[in-house]
Amino acid sequence: MIDMKMIKRLIGLFLIVMSVPGADADPPLTSQPAVAAFVDEMAHKHGFDKERLSQIINEAQFQQSIIDAITRPAESKPWYEYRPIFITDSRIEHGVRFMGDYKDILHRAETQYGVPAEIITAILGVETFYGERIGRHRIIDSLVTLAFGYPARGDFFRSELEAYLLLTREQHLDPVSMKGSYAGAMGLPQFISSSYRSYAVDFDGDGKKDLWTDPADAIGSVANYLKIHGWQAHQAVAVHARVSGEGFRDALDMGIKPSIEVAQLRKYGIAPDKRLDKHLKSALIQLEAKSGYEYWLGLENFYVITRYNHSPLYAMAVYQLSQAIKAGKEHEIAVNN
Fold first, then answer.
1. 16-43 burial string, b = 16+ CB within 10 Å, else e?
2. 184, 73 in Cβ contact below 8 A?
3. What is the greatest pairwise CA distance in the chain?
4. Residues tagged active-site
5. Cα–Cα distance between 18 and 12 in angstroms, integer?
6. Of 313, 324, 321, 318, nearest to 74 (Cα)?
7. Kind and range of the H or E run holding 297
8. CA-to-CA distance for 29 and 42, rounded, in angstroms?
9. For 242-264, what is each residue's pLDDT tens digit?
10. Helix/strand/coil (H, E, C) string of 136-205?
11. Which residues is 297 bridged to in the sheet?
12. Residue 296: helix, strand or coil by DSSP?
């Protein structure tokens, strides 16, 4: 006897499989209304050839692994698990070596933009291990997947896809072959497309803004990015603090943007471990240790680092790695002298 319920179930499963982007029998991506509308907009707004752009978009492959990755970023880990990913002997040693190899360029960037060499180095260390790990995903796959398959941030990634297509046209790059992170970040400093177009600089004067293979441009671009976002030269980044009572919880609720003057910290039960100018503004940062919490005051420069990546864990990893690299470099200089 024919089991009609089973047949209907199998048909339903077949239709679901056929609807998944990337399936063998899938129609081209540009047959989807949202994708077709995007192509039309790019042609109207920026003068792209619709046929060529459709070919580029249709070469993209939807990847569920990209959706999975963006929903569980490393920054969702507690600090005691996040820190060991980036504060390692190998990353510190390579950072010391990078500072030595590019000391003149780093010094010029620090002089021009006011951003310490160790901060620039640490960001490149955290992002791509100083250029050794720039990403394995085709950027077109990442951005198309997230632009049209991740509704939670679809608008943002459609904007980044637009910027990417403009960037590759401007830089004469193949939009299909370029590789980066699962989120579409690229090059040594892992700039997203809009940041590349807005903040990248030709720091070695060769007529190109090359963040893929040119450490000088990467160094200058990171420094430029931080400077434009408010970096304050010769100012501290973060200071360890102690808390008491319950008032500090109100400070935590104020977020990571510095808003509490140092002179007002006492009323919240917060005591910095170092003397600070009473007029400086700060934010209380709580990091989860293996047992309990540790507390820091994030100053304006700490907040600026979070403009690169909005997680305070990221900013703290950059800061602590920078301090370890600086100490390692100073030790190397002392030994050699």
1. eeeeebeeeeeeebbeeeebbebbeebb
2. no
3. 91
4. 127
5. 10
6. 313
7. strand 293-298
8. 16
9. 999 999 999 999 999 999 999 99
10. CEEHHHHHHHHHHHCHHHHHHHHHHHHHHHHHHHHHCCCCCCCEECCCCCECCCCECHHHHHHHCCCCCC
11. 239, 284
12. strand
CA–CA separation, 90 and 26 (whole Å): 45
122 alpha-carbon distance from chain centroid: 13
| Contact between residue 217 and residue 204 where contact means Cβ atoms under 8 Å apart | yes
Please state at what angle helix 215-228 crosses helix 103-113, rounded to 10 degrees: 20
Other beta carbons within 10 angstroms of residue 10's beta carbon come to: 11
Contact 185, 163 (CB under 8 A): no
How far is it, in rounded angstroms, from Cα 119 to Cα 116? Answer: 5
Scanning 47-138, the segments in alpha helix (DSSP H) are 50-58, 64-70, 79-86, 89-101, 103-113, 117-128
Write down the pLDDT at residue 22. Answer: 46
Residues 257, 303: contact at Cβ < 8 Å?
yes
C-alpha 187: how far from its chain's center? 11
79 backbone dihedrals φ, ψ, rounded to 5°? -55, -40
Are the C-beta atoms of 297 and 239 separated by less than 8 Å? Answer: yes
pTM of the predicted structure, to 2 decimals: 0.89
Mind listing the pLDDT tens digit for each residue in 191-238?
999 999 999 999 999 999 999 999 999 999 999 999 999 999 999 999
Q: Is 74 helix (H, G, I), strand (E, B) or coil?
A: helix
Instruction: Work out whether the CA dihedral 260, 263, 268, 272 comes out positive or negative.
Output: positive
| In the block, residue with structure tokens 């360890």 | 240
Residue 242 CA: distances (Å) to CA of 123, 236, 245, 262, 302: 27, 18, 11, 13, 18
3 state DSSP class of 308: coil
Structure tokens belonging to residue 293: 């919490």
The CA-CA-CA angle for residues 17, 18, 24, to 5°, reads 105
Instruction: Give burial (CB, 10 Å; 0-12/13-18/19+) of 238.
Output: buried
